[in-house]
């Protein structure tokens, strides 16, 4: 496992090395003799980076020497200071460049030299100081022999950690399966009992501490239960009729680090294991000297004519299973193998089929309380002195249904039964600090830390960065990715966009069960997730210690020992005057979440190195003085005032030359200042607001009745723009819109015309010019008067359609789909509203080869019947039918659409529509009813749902009001 400390340090150093290399490559004449100093500093830091890589893999933070940890801290601080120095220097260079275009070349050089003399002298002094510090740190490493090879590998093996998980039943005094395991056990046994004589592999997947090993062992050791059922004449739950009894049962722990030969020897010994007191099987005499080939041969020979059930526990890599599976023959006797893992990818790789993956869920609240009471009191009965629902609820919330967390916290409280129960709540709040002190909690921390330690190197800093968010916060992909980019944690690589890179990162988190998905996109990608409270405590402690993030609020983590605070996140409930003794002038990231008033200690004029400023959800507005100070933050790259009370932006916003993201969504800001066109680094310009009508957010509508932002002329100057959403093109906005065609990097364009009678002008030509770059397009006409013909007729005039379009949203009268619609072979998401399309709509849309999500909103379709046949919509996964008053019949032929997973319906009160064929959708997983539906319609749909072969199928009833319609 890699050293945790390398995460923040290597991230900081990686960003810096790129900037130093670029600075040298540019051959700035202004650098003079400093250029050699920069090269030497870069060489020194590259050597340190190589040392970091050598150190990686020795052990986690518990195995580090304090000397090594101190050395890494010093290197990290040098990297941060050097990056700040270079960024400030480059800013001053860019500020003076181009000021003297009218002067002769020689005169320009003299003037530029004089203007930058002070800056160059300061750079020379600081670079020399940094180089000196770097050399001293390197000498110190050699002086104290801080070499990777000298570091003791005294960290307990992952196998030992997992043994704690295996001992969970014993921890609460019960050798039977854990409370709440009965249902999990039944479902797993059902998977094992599928009629099949061939060898089948079933995977059990979930986060560490969820009880996967306990569940697997409960099934393995259920022989007594099976034998009692045989005696009573009941069918054996593990032995199907006509199949022989299980002759061999074995459990093989793999863990993260293993030696293949030793693992195979253990496996063979387990397969030949005899009752205690009997001699070892003579067939394995001398096994200690066997090679891998002989061990595999013995295993296969021994199992060739026997029915077996084997648990392969704690598999971290698919390669481990590939090496081990050779030992288990497919002897057509109905043998079964159960693999436990934390990784979805490993689970899919090991299993015989997709249906053989069992994803474990957290305990319910009721089961969590039962387990907690048994852990603390030894029974499910609570003594009268401990009847405190607030205390128990706080513990259950903290544990998040994780058996390991419940048992660990309960074990800690069991030792405090002589204390007043009021003290227990204080103990729960101190869990982040207790994780390092309490022996029981430390075992839990080690198990959960394994999932973090298993993350690839490039994901670790990004995962620690999640400590910026408070408990139970839904972390959205878009803002997080843009923050990562602003911090320098990720950057585009050839052939991959930030969105694609971020998707890989998110999938990596989910696959390793370190986060829990909250919402999915229509393409089944992760839109948002949450971090388990206990896991958040762990990474917050790591992040604070490594000075990646200092969080203030519900979780107070000491920054003692850090010379300079680099990133600050202020959560609701934080204390004022916390920074009275600490300097904020080195802070590069400031997040203030949901505060009711501006913290007294924050003065933006002191935050000259700030790259990220996120005020989302704050209930106060920036004053004129605040804005004046913010506009002087020359290094600022990310600015979010989303969901704040701000009503305007400052006229001098254009001074933020490095700004990449500006987010003013869900505010009352209605105009961008003229100076915004000076933001030539800006990539994301985000405004507007959506209203959601279902709990799953599957049905949403842009809040067009609220004020939307207008863009000033000069947009074409902003060459870096990639995302524009949402802006009003009313009036002079159309003139600005013509400049959009010059934005060659634009991938996302969201526009609304708030004047129902206004023309879209030559927008068709603009779309033609952007046909190679656009991936997301939303065109909306104010729906105040949707009876006006020809609102979106300009779409028919598009000469070169955006063939790479992935998502398209159209609101406005159309009459028929444009003739070029069949060319949209990459279109995955389509939403239509007030388009008044006829019968040919379904046939045209049904032929789109990549369409995954189709949302038909009010007025999108004028037909009375909507039928889905077997030859249409080959990959459709999501279908939304919202308020189609003319609809009489909605039907699905057998198996059509064959991949549909989610169906959302709102049929208005009084609708005569019938819904037929839901039971014919083979992959349907969820049906969602929203709005105020007639009882008859609901009953009809429920009858279809109840007869569906996919059991259980989730049905959501949402009684929110229906969306507005004209």
Automatic annotation (TrEMBL):
Residues 12-101 form the Disease resistance N-terminal domain. Residues 184-228, 248-378 form the NB-ARC domain. GO terms for molecular function: ADP binding. Residues 468-539 form the Disease resistance protein winged helix domain. CDD domains: RX-CC_like. GO terms for biological process: defense response to bacterium; innate immune response-activating signaling pathway; plant-type hypersensitive response. SUPFAM superfamilies: L domain-like, P-loop containing nucleoside triphosphate hydrolases. InterPro entries: Apaf_helical, Disease_R_plants, LRR_dom_sf, LRR_R13L4/SHOC2-like, NB-ARC, P-loop_NTPase, RX-like_CC, Rx_N. Residues 586-952 form the Disease resistance R13L4/SHOC-2-like LRR domain. Pfam families: LRR_14, NB-ARC, Rx_N, WHD_DRP. Gene3D superfamilies: 1.20.5.4130, Helical domain of apoptotic protease-activating factors, P-loop containing nucleotide triphosphate hydrolases, Ribonuclease Inhibitor, Winged helix-like DNA-binding domain superfamily/Winged helix DNA-binding domain. Keywords: Coiled coil, Leucine-rich repeat, Nucleotide-binding, Plant defense, Repeat. Belongs to the disease resistance NB-LRR family. PANTHER family: DISEASE RESISTANCE PROTEIN RP, DISEASE RESISTANCE PROTEIN RPM1. This is Uncharacterized protein.
